[in-house]
Design a protein that fits this description.
This protein is α+β, with helices and mostly antiparallel strands. The protein has helices spanning 62-72, 80-96, 104-118, 120-130, 136-145; strands spanning 11-18, 24-31, 36-42, 49-51, 57-59, 101-103. The protein is globular.
Length: 152
């Protein structure tokens, strides 16, 4: 494994344990430079391809999914463990669809459905990018249609 600081592969595993939900192995690593970092090893059932709106295809990237979810949840009171479980559940659900090609729309819908229950503010943040609101009125119409804020 390449050290993120040294950019060299001279690292050793200090500790290894399964994650709480048992879907990955968490490894604490130590580089010869003294830097410690964590890696995760996950099961991948099949290679998923994402079909974009314009028809282009690219490999499913869990890290890209993770980044977009963390951006939506930035400064929200949701702990990292809950977020990681949420991301794992979406990834697993995509694999369980049994298809090798998944539309970006399917992924976006799954994320929005999950965020709606997890955190209403993150849901609206994600939707504002995913739905590509052009004007303020688009945003207002979207918020008026949803009921997550009316429950509170």
């Amino acid at each position: 494994m390449i050290c993120p600081c040294e950019k060299k592969g001279e690292t050793s595993v200090v500790d290894s344990r399964p994650t709480e939900d048992g879907t990955a192995i968490r490894r604490r690593r130590l580089c010869v430079c003294g830097e410690r970092f964590t890696t995760f090893e996950r099961i991948q059932i099949r290679e998923l391809m994402v079909v974009k709106k314009n028809g282009r295809k690219s490999p499913f990237d869990r890290d890209k999914l993770s980044k977009s979810i963390y951006i939506a949840l930035k400064k929200r009171p949701i702990d990292t463990e809950t977020v990681e479980k949420f991301i794992t559940n979406i990834s697993r659900s995509l694999e369980e669809l049994g298809q090798s090609e998944i539309t970006s729309n399917t992924i976006g819908t799954m994320v929005m459905d999950g965020l709606k229950n997890l955190d209403p503010v993150a849901y609206v943040r994600f939707a504002s990018v995913y739905r590509n609101f052009r004007e303020e009125k688009d945003f207002i119409q979207f918020v008026d249609k949803i009921d997550v804020f009316k429950k509170r």
